[in-house]
Amino acid sequence: MIIDTKLMVESIPFVLKGLPYTLLISIASFFLGNILASLIYLLRLLNHKIINQFLIIYSSFFRGIPAIVLLFALYFGLPMQLNPIVASILCFGLTSSAFLSEIFRSAMSSVNQGQWEASKALGMSKLLIIREIIMPQAIRIAIGPMSNVAIDLVKGSSLAAMITVSEIFQQAKIIGGREFNFLSMYFLVACIYWGLCIVIEKIQYALEKRFPILS
């Protein structure tokens, strides 16, 4: 039998020992990506030619390179060796920030321009307009795309196994090598990742229901 269900069931506790690392990398990367993306958006509001050009190159670069290349560069290529978890969080935080910054920009620009003009007419500052008027509406629009980024981070965290992080994929590889049955373990870990992504989807649907897009 190619898929050994007994082995899969018996291996669940061992594989799930890597779940805290998977969640840590995914959640920390998502928060770091959001912080950097917010900073990128705020810097773009300055409308400084050089800064804007740099940010455009930044977004293009980190959206255009494979995550595994950046991960290896951070872990193997620097003069000082980073902790593998730190390297993973930095890698996925940087790549996600490039995608999230474009999501923020698109969501912000999709808010009716008249609301900007009306708010300015009331004497509100640009930052106050963003915080009180534009941001609450833009977040509603961005929930779906941001959830896609979160799902990609959960799946992408499996790359951390390449630099010895004992997350769920690495744990599955250990058992697969010991039992000479990688297919069963890969199927098990695929189901676990699928379950994590379903949880994110449920959170997305709940948030979309709680904060519907205003017409």
Automatic annotation (TrEMBL):
<keyword id="KW-0029">Amino-acid transport</keyword>
<feature type="domain" description="ABC transmembrane type-1">
    <location>
        <begin position="19"/>
        <end position="204"/>
    </location>
</feature>
<dbReference type="GO" id="GO:0022857">
    <property type="term" value="F:transmembrane transporter activity"/>
</dbReference>
<feature type="transmembrane region" description="Helical">
    <location>
        <begin position="55"/>
        <end position="76"/>
    </location>
</feature>
<dbReference type="InterPro" id="IPR035906">
    <property type="entry name" value="MetI-like_sf"/>
</dbReference>
<dbReference type="InterPro" id="IPR043429">
    <property type="entry name" value="ArtM/GltK/GlnP/TcyL/YhdX-like"/>
</dbReference>
<comment type="similarity">
    <text>Belongs to the binding-protein-dependent transport system permease family.</text>
</comment>
<feature type="transmembrane region" description="Helical">
    <location>
        <begin position="20"/>
        <end position="43"/>
    </location>
</feature>
<dbReference type="InterPro" id="IPR010065">
    <property type="entry name" value="AA_ABC_transptr_permease_3TM"/>
</dbReference>
<keyword id="KW-1003">Cell membrane</keyword>
<feature type="transmembrane region" description="Helical">
    <location>
        <begin position="82"/>
        <end position="100"/>
    </location>
</feature>
<keyword id="KW-0813">Transport</keyword>
<dbReference type="GO" id="GO:0043190">
    <property type="term" value="C:ATP-binding cassette (ABC) transporter complex"/>
</dbReference>
<protein>
    <submittedName>
        <fullName>Amino acid ABC transporter permease</fullName>
    </submittedName>
</protein>
<feature type="transmembrane region" description="Helical">
    <location>
        <begin position="183"/>
        <end position="207"/>
    </location>
</feature>
<keyword id="KW-0812">Transmembrane</keyword>
<dbReference type="GO" id="GO:0006865">
    <property type="term" value="P:amino acid transport"/>
</dbReference>
<dbReference type="InterPro" id="IPR000515">
    <property type="entry name" value="MetI-like"/>
</dbReference>
<keyword id="KW-1133">Transmembrane helix</keyword>
<keyword id="KW-0472">Membrane</keyword>
<dbReference type="Pfam" id="PF00528">
    <property type="entry name" value="BPD_transp_1"/>
</dbReference>
